[in-house]
Every structure is written in structure tokens, then in C-alpha cells.
Amino acid sequence: MALEIHILDYGDIELENSFLVLGHNCGRVKRVPVYGFLILGGTYPILVDTGYRDNAIMESLGMRGLQFHENMMEQQLARFGLKLGDIRYILHTHLHIDHAGKDDLFPMNTTVIVNRRELECSVSGLMHPQYPKPDIMHLIERLHTQDALRFMDLEITGAEEVIPGVWCEAANAHTEGSMNVVVETADGLACICGDVIYDFQDQIVDQVRQTQFMEPQVTGNHAGSKRAEKGAIKRLLNNFRYLLVVHDKPAMVEHQQIVGRLEMQVPGPISQSVQKRNWFPV
Ligand SMILES: [Zn+2]
Predict the structure, then answer these.
(1) Ligand 1 centre and the CA of 85: distance in Å?
(2) 173 with 233: CB under 8 angstroms?
(3) pLDDT value at residue 264
(4) Distance between CA 195 and CA 197 in Å, rounded?
(5) In the prediction, which pLDDT does 203 show?
(6) Ligand 1 mean position, distance from CA 195 (Å)
(7) Residues 71-108: tens digit of each pLDDT
(8) Residues, beta carbon < 5 Å, ion ligand 1
(9) How far does the centroid of ligand 1 lie from the alpha carbon of residue 1, in Å?
(10) Which of 44, 98, 190, 218, CA to CA, is 20 to 30 A from 178?
(11) pLDDT tens-digit profile of 199-213?
């Protein structure tokens, strides 16, 4: 059976637009989705990212959480006939507030997989409001529990396999320890790339405030250099058929250009797998 990626809808957040795209629409609020991804059809069910803990925790960053009953983890997994305990691995693109908020719902024999560099950064104190205490404390609890946590060292290894057809690579963007999750689908390679891209339209398709041809715009929230961010985005466009990010609907890529977007409401839940849905041209 081929691997399939399904999108989970963890609710929306409202934030200031220039946080999403550097210098764009400063002071204006934008509502964006927060997605997770379920990889089925392989050796074990895999979940990528777990969303934010609750609406209240988003206030600590001056953002608004819009999480409702249907966005709860149990409800989202139930759409696929799954319970919390059925998930074998949780992978994290990174550990920011809106990506690792529900790990403590899962049993300790669900192994959480993170790039070691990302957990280091989460406790460095450099960006700590984006790494809230309860989420990180839970990961430390897992660190001290047999098999509850697995580290990757992607800056050194290059890539590490999770199950056949699913592997992780260093993202080299967004945060120091971000990782991309690559999935071999029947239609080509899909890459779940977290927050390396926030907004396909404003950053890549019709780049805001860029005069150079095919030059991606960076987000307003990157820990590394602008050159590193641009390079990381170009690398994604160069290597993958599908790009799936956490705060925008998925994109289809051909010859380093975005040629299609997944036909779905943003925000809003979708029920079928990413590959079987309709794509519309850009
Ligand atoms: Zn995010």
C-alpha cells in the first residue's frame, strides 16, 4: 500500500501579518490555519506536529487562538478511525508553541522524534516565549522515560529514516533545529516543511517587495540568515513534488515553480488524502 498524507485541522491563529512575510502589511492581523499531518499506509501511523495546547497559551505571544471542539486531537484522529494510542511516532518539524502543544495527550510508548538541535534551542533562553514551559517540560519528562523520545542529529547524518518511505532531513531554516519530513508517495516526493514557508502566494508565487526573478521572500520569523532562508526555500522547490506547510494550504511544484494549490478551504477541515484531492492551477 502506498503512503498517504492526510491533513489534520488543529484550529486557527490570528497574528500580525509582518510576522508571516517580512515587512508585509505591518500592523494588520491575519488568520491562518494550524495543520498537522497524518501519514498512513506504512509500517505504523505517524503524526507530524501536534498544534497548540489551548487558546490561552497563544495569548503569551500576543496572538489569538481559535481552537474549537472539532479541532481537538481526539476528534481529528477519529476522522480516520484512530485513537491517541494508535500513533506510533510523533515527528516535530520544530518545537514552537503551535507545533508541539499536545504531546502530553499521547502515551509514553508513542515515541516523539525531534532533531536534537531543536530541543537544545528550546531551552537556550534565546527565543523562549516561542517554546512554552509546559510543552518543553513534557519533552524533558519523555527524555527520562524509556523509548519515549528519539533524537535525530540531522546536521551530521544528512537524513534519517523513520519507516520505509518516510525520512527526516535538516531544514536549515526557520529555527536552528527545524527538520523536514519527506514522504515517498505514489505521485512523487512530498515534503512536510513546517514553517520554512508561511505563505506560498506572498513569498513565492507573487513575492512581496522583490524585484529579482524567482527570488523568494523570507518570513518575519526566521532564526538564521536571510540567505539561509532563501536557500532553504529554493532547495525545497528544487527537490519535491508537493510541499506541505503548517500555516497554508499545500502546493504542487514543477520545475521550481508552484503550479498548483490544493483545493480546500483555508481555514477548514479536509477529509481525503492530499494526493487524491483536486489541485487547481496557480
Ligand atoms: Zn508555526
Answers:
(1) 25
(2) yes
(3) 60
(4) 5
(5) 95
(6) 5
(7) 999 999 999 999 999 999 999 999 999 999 999 999 99
(8) 98, 195
(9) 31
(10) 44
(11) 999 999 998 888 898
Q: What letter represents residue 99's amino acid?
A: H
Q: Where are the domains of the chain?
A: 4-281
Contact 98, 156 (CB under 8 A): no
The percent of the chain in helix, strand and coil, each rounded to the nearest 5, is: 25, 30, 45
Ligand 1 centre distance from Cα of residue 120 (Å): 18
- Per-residue buried b or exposed e for 60-85, using 16+ beta carbons within 10 Å of the residue's own CB: ebebebebeeebbbeebbeeeebeee
Per the listing, cell 497524518 goes with 38
From the centroid of its chain, how far is CA 12? 14
What architecture is domain 4-281?
A: 4-Layer Sandwich (3.60)
Mean pLDDT value across residues 153-160: 97
pTM, entire model: 0.94
pLDDT digits (tens, 9 = 90+) for 218-260: 999 998 999 999 999 999 999 999 999 999 999 999 999 999 9
Query: In this structure, what C-alpha cell is assigned to residue 93?
Result: 518539524
Q: Judge whether 154 and 167 are in contact, CB under 8 Å.
A: no
End-to-end CA distance of the chain: 31
In the numeric block, which cell numbers belong to residue 202? 506572498
Helices (H) and strands (E) in the chain, counts: 8, 15
pLDDT reported for residue 266:
42
The DSSP code for 227 is H
Q: Cβ-count burial of 56 within 10 angstroms (0-12 exposed, 13-18 middle, 19+ buried)?
A: exposed
